[in-house]
């Protein structure tokens, strides 16, 4: 992040996981972007989990 202004470099140190700073020549200021899926999920269907009561019981063997 050396190319960023000092304030943005400081902010980059405290960004939450999954957030990056995007810097494009066409955009006059850096933009913080957040990736909505876990790193291993390349499709929306891979990021969806069944969190129903029945799925939990099945997972726990109840």
Automatic annotation (TrEMBL):
GO molecular function terms noted in the UniProt entry: ATP binding
Source superkingdom: Bacteria
Keyword annotations: ATP-binding, Nucleotide-binding
Name recorded for this polypeptide: ATP-binding protein
Species of provenance: Oceanithermus profundus
């Amino acid at each position: 992040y050396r190319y960023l202004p000092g304030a943005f470099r400081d902010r980059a140190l405290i960004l939450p996981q999954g957030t990056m700073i995007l810097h494009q020549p066409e955009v006059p200021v850096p933009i913080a972007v957040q990736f909505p899926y876990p790193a291993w999920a390349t499709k929306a269907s891979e990021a969806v989990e069944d969190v129903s009561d029945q799925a939990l019981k099945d997972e726990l063997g109840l």
